[in-house]
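Tutorial, part two.
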Amino acid sequence: MKEKRSDIFGFLSLWVGFIGLLNCLVPIVGLITIVFSIIFGIISLIKKERTKWKAITGISISFTALIIATVSIMISFIPDASLSQVDKPDWAPEEVYKYGYPVKHDDVEISVNKVFFSYGKMVRPGITIKNIGEDTVQYSPNDFTLVQDQGNEKGKRINPVTNSEYLLKSGELEPGEEISGEIEFVFPVNNSFFALVYKDEVYIDVTYN
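Running the prediction step on this input gives:
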């Protein structure tokens, strides 16, 4: 009578694979279990065990866990557009966005593309406004103010200059359209915190570095 062999490596691949799937987001531990599950599964297949489903299932589970771990790592490297609490003054709102990242508000997407400083004189952010909705939207430089954090005027709002032909004018955007231009704020500039504010709700850090 032929002795029935036990597929120990297929069994190990299956259960270690389950452990790897449950721990795939745990650094080092998850990776080690995934690797061992794949190794055990390959050994089982090489040994040509009579039952291959354990090894194949274990390897499949391990590759699934590996994909999940890889996607999680990639997501963790996506930069966060909002600043941490320590990067802004106490009076600033909970969310202050970094300059250079698109920020959505209702049907509009705002991007600060560049910021020109004239020390002691003015700040001139270059912005892009895009209509991401389905209806026509109105835009105006008066939708923006600049808030500062200097001296005894912390949190003071500054209105933009609107009498220059070279700066952004009022208008409207059809769905999918965008417009770029500059907005100028004239005041004694120093190295303190500045935020470009859109409709009193969206704060974008434009601090001089």
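The chain has a mean pLDDT of 81. In part three we will examine how such features are distributed along the chain.
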